[in-house]
Amino acid sequence: MSLFKLSRNGVRMLKELFIGNSLLVTKASHVRGPFFKYLRTLPQPQPQVQVLQGFKWQEQRLYSTSGPQNGCNEENEPKETISVTFVLKDGEEQQIEVPVGMSMLEAAHQNDIELEGACEGSLACSTCHVIVMDMDYYNKIEEPVDEENDMLDLAFGLTETSRLGCQVIAKPELDGIRLAIPAATRNFAVDGFTPKPH
Amino acid sequence: MALFRARALFCRCFSTSASHPTHICVVGSGPAGFYTAEKLLKALPNAQVDIIDRLPTPFGLVRSGVAPDHPETKIVVNQFTRVAQHQRCSFFGNIKLGSSISLSDLRELYHTVVLAYGAESDRSLKIPGEDWYGIHSAREFVWWYNGHPDCRNLNPGLKTTDTAVILGQGNVALDVARILLRPTSELGSTDIASHALEALQESSIRKVLLVGRRGPVQAACTAKELREVLGIKNLHIHIREADLLKSPTDEEEVKNSRIQRRVYELLAKAAASGPPHSGTGLRELHFVFFRKPEEFLSSVDEKDHVAGVRFEKTVLEGSSPGKQIARGTGEFEDLDCQMVLKSIGYKSVPIDGLPFDHQKGIVPNIRGRVVSYISGDAIQLEEGLYVCGWLKRGPTGIIATNLYCAQETVASICEDLDKTASGSSFSSSSKPGREGLIHALDDQNVRFVPFSAWEKIDSVEKRLGSLKNKPREKLTTWEELLKVAME
């Protein structure tokens, strides 16, 4: 199943690579990082192990505090960023600049914004759930794959414009996007949410 | 984020290091325990948090519950490991509440005790023959294939039968079905216990029946697990078309619940996908709806060996969506099988001195505060005692549910600490905390397993695993685990 998922991710990533904006070729060389890593691992014989290595690597990326480079500036090109506003659990807003190609989960973590990421972006949990606050922006993001929808099923306070932060990748069209982090405690305690069995 | 958080906490700790730290003990090191510890460390800069566990290994069901072919789900242990390594946090493995140390002693030692020890028993069907050979709870089977030291010797008879019946259709049932039916070549590169892998390689089971009392609309699984089991190679899925018919109430349920809708759609699609491909080694998975177990049938040759299950057919009763129950019709059907796995729910185990609601199988609580009794409007709380996770809300939900559950319990703890600090003598009362615990364990001659010793186990397991192309080869006996830990 991991291989399946891996290939799904791979396909998704491929799709993103060729989606029409010439991101990969000219700008945002950091896009290479995760994508190429995944693609490279595809044909190898032990999918599980490879997946885990991929995660380990991703984790380093996620939790790296090595400043603005983060291994994504290899070619010293001017980095393109978009503006993203997170609406935090307490209603406070925080605007950050996110390099094109970076996931919102990663961007949140780099900016010390409290967004959980239990599975570190591997589409196995729903803890990085964010709500896109404007339908127009929501429509500009690629449709969620089945695996993301499966996880969104279990997200607290799901809305029509809910996405997983790890699957929303910064691209120029998303400049100005606003993302709310659901105040899950409220849902849990008051709205009588009955969680589905594990 | 965690790194930032840790750093922030680190600084705060220095600036506010109080003379009287608040000593908190969390019992249980699964997701509920670790999320509680994480939130406590963050919310209370002067808290010392100790996590105890009866096993020498941490992480509870992430280690012994999450299926071996779900490595992504286990990534959360990275986060839990950072919590355990926090300078104000300690892990004490191999400490059993109630025998290594009593609850009352623990409450003497710590300002606050949070019980998050989960549900280590099973609900029972209360029908004849439940204890026969060949019948196990899904929990035991899961512990067995995940290398839990308490089920190392379960030896389910996989070679003596071609049919297994699983009672229940939740995610645990689906996990168990998947492990039974998935090609073992695909399991070989997971962290599945080697004794389980060997047994599965020799398994003669070709047909698995997943039986539920209600219909496909009420199936308790989630889409991810269902999609997975439906996608197994060379597996033919049987679902009776007639079972897929929806009543008006069913329609309402499907409309109201995204998750039920998506599960139903997957089942309907699988049912429509046509006849099996011919081929050798084909295995079958049958979804059997509207059947309630009535009694177990014993083998003619061997008494007390299961040879089948008698089911009563059911219909749904009740017209409010989400509340339909299965009622027996008086019509029966027997299914042959030599193995039955009961996946009808876990149950928490009470301990001495702890209020317990035997009906619900949980500790009575208000937002995590343990309630000793309620009479009329008067509610008596157990001071300094809290619950989180399955012990608090029952055995449902995903790992992330514990995050919100922990948030709620920790909010209650913080409110209570604030209250007592501003009013009573609490602020000046100091408790022995960690040092006291170590003393008490020493007196009892109990050797605990610190987190550093778990890290030894961890690295041994990973090294053994790398020899077999597995992420880890779990140590599965108490002796092995303790030997490596105490070396």
From TrEMBL, chain A:
GO terms for biological process: P450-containing electron transport chain. Its cofactor is [2Fe-2S] cluster. Keywords: 2Fe-2S, Iron, Iron-sulfur, Metal-binding. Residues 82-185 form the 2Fe-2S ferredoxin-type domain. GO terms for molecular function: 2 iron, 2 sulfur cluster binding; electron transfer activity; metal ion binding. SUPFAM superfamilies: 2Fe-2S ferredoxin-like. Pfam families: Fer2 (PF00111). GO terms for cellular component: mitochondrion. InterPro entries: 2Fe-2S_ferredoxin-like_sf, 2Fe-2S_ferredoxin-type, Adrenodoxin-like, Adrenodoxin_Fe-S_BS, Beta-grasp_dom_sf. PANTHER family: ADRENODOXIN-LIKE PROTEIN 1, MITOCHONDRIAL-RELATED (PTHR23426:SF34), FERREDOXIN/ADRENODOXIN (PTHR23426). This is 2Fe-2S ferredoxin-like isoform X1. It comes from Cucumis melo (Muskmelon).
TrEMBL record, chain B:
GO terms for biological process: electron transport chain. Its main location: mitochondrion. One of its GO terms (molecular function) is flavin adenine dinucleotide binding. Its EC number is 1.18.1.6. It is found in: Mitochondrion. FAD binds at residues 32, 61, 97, 390, 397-399. Gene3D superfamilies: FAD/NAD(P)-binding domain (3.50.50.60), NAD(P)-binding Rossmann-like Domain (3.40.50.720). Belongs to the ferredoxin--NADP reductase type 1 family. Its cofactor is FAD. It catalyses: 2 reduced [adrenodoxin] + NADP(+) + H(+) = 2 oxidized [adrenodoxin] + NADPH. Keywords: FAD, Flavoprotein, Mitochondrion, NADP, Oxidoreductase. This is NADPH:adrenodoxin oxidoreductase, mitochondrial. One of its GO terms (cellular component) is mitochondrion. InterPro entries: FAD/NAD-bd_sf (IPR036188), FAD/NAD-binding_dom (IPR023753), Ferredox_Rdtase (IPR055275), Ferredox_Rdtase_adrenod (IPR021163). NADP(+) binds at residues 169-172, 213-214, 225, 397. Residues 23-184 form the FAD/NAD(P)-binding domain. Coiled coil: none annotated.
